[in-house]
Design a protein that fits this description.
By secondary structure, this protein is mainly alpha-helical. The protein has two domains: 39-189, no CATH class; 191-265, Winged helix-like DNA-binding domain superfamily/Winged helix DNA-binding domain (Arc Repressor Mutant, subunit A, Orthogonal Bundle), CATH 1.10.10. It contains ten helices and ten strands. The strands form five sheets. The chain has a two-stranded antiparallel sheet with strand order 1-2. A two-stranded antiparallel sheet has the order 3-6. Strands 4-5 form a two-stranded antiparallel sheet. Strand 7 (179-181) and strand 8 form a beta hairpin. The longest helix is centred in the middle third of the chain and has 19 residues, at 140-158. The radius of gyration is 24 Å and the shape is globular. The chain starts with 9 loop residues before the first strand and ends with a helix.
Length: 265
């Protein structure tokens, strides 16, 4: 029997025939991130303008939270505040899903009080000492034990009355009810607000990092709200869309409201 010739870079099979040794493929940057983070919730995903629109937060405010803020003192000296939300990669202005949740919770404070960034940082540093976590505002211990401590300390910093602290606590808890956790207590989904002024609005739209690349979808369906809104803008009615997708009218209206709010923000 004639044997195959062995060439450089080849390996011999048990039958004596040769086959080339494969070269490991080059790893894509996203794969490196997946390998490093091991969790889609930690991947840098959302540009600041997009995250601000989904959360209905002014872009300049969110940018200051995640990138810091430069300012000039009365004496003309330049100063800078460090960020209050830590991005997964400081060289890239992209929020992770966990950052999105942190900003969502932090927005409860901005919504009722115009609070300086340095004050927010002091309160978060206090919280981090009691809830040691990369994302203390998204940690389950903040939801169960940390809210009262945080509000009490925060209220002392900015001189908020007892009634004001109670209102802040209730608002924080309303925001936290829109954060859903898995069986291990880890954040799994965020139900963003599609309206303003109603903390108890229905949870029809969800952001799940495992679905539709983390973009908003109709809860329980995986249908991107952007797709529904595009068809609506193209001239299809709410009733037509509800029939086509097999959803009720309220769901379609919330999907459209979510995307129209995004564009109007």
């Amino acid at each position: 029997m004639r044997m195959g010739l062995r060439s450089p870079g080849a390996a011999e099979t048990p039958t004596g025939y040769t086959r080339p040794v494969s070269t490991p493929p080059t790893r894509h940057p996203l794969r490196r991130w997946l390998s490093a983070a091991q969790d889609a919730r930690e991947l840098p995903t959302y540009p600041i303008p997009e995250a601000a629109r989904y959360l209905r937060i002014p872009e300049t405010t969110l940018r200051a939270w995640v990138r810091g803020q430069r300012y000039v003192t009365a004496a003309g000296r330049r100063r800078a505040f460090e960020p209050v939300i830590r991005l997964p990669d400081r060289s890239r202005p992209l929020l992770s899903f966990m950052n999105l949740v942190e900003a969502h919770v932090l927005d409860a404070l901005r919504r009722e009080h115009e609070i300086p960034l340095q004050t927010v940082r002091k309160a978060l540093a206090y919280l981090a000492q009691r809830v040691p976590s990369p994302h203390p505002l998204a940690d389950q211990r903040f939801e169960t034990d940390g809210v009262n401590l945080f509000v009490q300390y925060f209220g002392a910093l900015v001189n908020i009355s007892q009634d004001g602290q109670l209102a802040m606590r209730e608002l924080l808890q309303a925001y936290l009810r829109r954060v859903e956790r898995d069986a291990h207590g880890i954040v799994a989904r965020l139900y963003p607000f599609t309206r303003r002024g109603d903390p108890n609005e229905p949870r029809r739209v969800v952001i799940d990092p495992r679905i539709s690349f983390g973009r908003p979808v109709l809860a329980g369906t995986g249908i991107p709200t952007a797709m529904i809104a595009e068809r609506y803008k193209a001239g299809e009615s709410v009733d037509e869309l509800a029939k086509d997708y097999g959803r009720d009218r309220l769901e379609i209206e919330e999907a459209i409201r979510c995307e129209l709010a995004v564009e109007a923000a």
